[in-house]
Each structure stands twice: as C-alpha cells, then as structure tokens.
Amino acid sequence: MHQIDEIDRKIIAAVQNDGRITTQELAERVGLSPSPCARRVRLLEQSGVIKKYAAIIDQTKVGLPISAFASVKLERQREGDLDRFARAVERWPEVVDCYLMTGQRDYLLRIVARDLESYERFLKDKLTRLDGVASIETSFALGQVKRSEALPLL
C-alpha cells in the first residue's frame, strides 16, 4: 500500500477541490516541479487513492430536485440476500448512494427523482418488488445544508 505523506495530502486536497487543475499549477501549489508531481499523481491513481475524476452536477438544474432517503429492512441478512439486494440497487440509476447499515435498518438509499410521482413509481415498480424487502421507510430532504465530496485530510 502507498504511504501517504504531507505532499501527497496537499496533492489530494488540491485535486479534490479542482479535478481539472493542471500539473503545472498543482506542482506550484505543493512545492514540486511538474515531473515529480505528475509521478506522484500517477502513483496515487495506480494505488487507488484517487479512484476517478468527476464533475459535480447540480441535481435541481438537471431536473431532479427530489432527494429521498429510503431506509430498507430485509427479511433476512444472509450473505446471498445482501448480495442480491446490492446487485439490484447497482442497476437502478435513481439510487445515487447506498450504504449497508448497522441498527434497525439494513440499507440507507439516496434516491433522486423529478417529482413525487417519479419516486412513487420507483418505489412501486422496483424497490417493493424486490424479493426479500421486508419494509421501507422514506424521508424527503427539504433542503441541502452541506454536501462535500472532499475528504478532510487531517
């Protein structure tokens, strides 16, 4: 595994904030020349520290203003049941986040939708039809207070 040092942390912090930063600008920010900086970025990519580069899209501006959080309880928590649920969720584009949880519920899903009718259609046509789902509890976000894709590199 790649040992992350202080320069790597600076590189990670910079690319988390701006994935389109040039190697020259990144090198200047972290105090390296461009060639060693590019080598470090490549090593962070190859080791899986940097998984991918992506644009952060405003979901409201693309017509998906609804964020629903669905807590799902399965009938059983056997490995096969968990795997089957995870495979189904991976196929559903409406589900943008899915976490296996501890506590009363097994999964927490964040689902985006155009409107309440679209969410209801997703619920009826997909989520409730999946074998092994015992119960679903949904909460709707009224607004977003904070969202960050950047990890705090303490």
UniProtKB/TrEMBL annotation:
Pfam families according to UniProt: AsnC_trans_reg, HTH_24
SMART domains linked to this entry: HTH_ASNC
Highest taxon above the source species: Bacteria
Alphabetized UniProt keyword annotations: DNA-binding, Transcription, Transcription regulation
InterPro entries associated with the record: ArsR-like_HTH, AsnC-type_HTH_dom, Dimeric_a/b-barrel, Tscrpt_reg_AsnC-like, Tscrpt_reg_AsnC/Lrp_C, Tscrpt_reg_HTH_AsnC-type_CS, WH-like_DNA-bd_sf, WH_DNA-bd_sf
One cellular-component annotation, GO: cytosol
Transmembrane portions of the chain: none
A single GO BP: regulation of DNA-templated transcription
SUPFAM superfamilies attached to this UniProt entry: Dimeric alpha+beta barrel, Winged helix' DNA-binding domain
Positions of the HTH asnC-type domain: 4-65
Recorded GO MF terms: sequence-specific DNA binding
Record-given protein name: AsnC family transcriptional regulator
